[in-house]
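S., here's the first fold you wanted:
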Amino acid sequence: MAIIDGQVHLNHLGIEACLGAMDAVGIDGAIIDQYPPTGTRLENGAYRYAYAMSEQAVLRFPARFSYVARIDNRDPDRDRLIAEARSHRGCLGFASINRRAPRWPATVTARFFAR
């Protein structure tokens, strides 16, 4: 059975350091939650996350990495971002950020899993 780390915070130490640590303890693959997060603050205060390091890890080592997208519930393009997330190579899930904002309809979440 493959051993998968369910949440790796890939950070400034880089992809190679992460692979070295994984190899040292027998981890076959990892789901990246990129930290610290990068992205852009929107006018309404929401944060639109970017995944450059996660996407690079998936591109270079597709058998070892996948990632989770962070989506701010206040983002005006939230529904589109959720619907498009699965089309991004290696994106296997998403985390709802700012849960105090109004929730999205179940149909939006269903589109993510309708792959």
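And the second, which I think is the more interesting of the pair:
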Amino acid sequence: MKIIILLIILSLIVALGFLSAFFWAVKDGQFDDDVSPAMRILFDDDQPDNNNNTTTTKS
């Protein structure tokens, strides 16, 4: 019976830790912009590198 009480107390401490981490992330603005990360994949900002620094030697 003592172990059940200990496990309940331990699980409540862990749950409060996760809840406080969630509120901290919301307060710091982690979840403010939920549109642009999904749209970022649609825009190709990377330009191909035509000046490749690898040289090949012909024998």
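Why I say that: The chain has a mean pLDDT of 83. The chain has two helices and no strands.

Talk tomorrow,
H.
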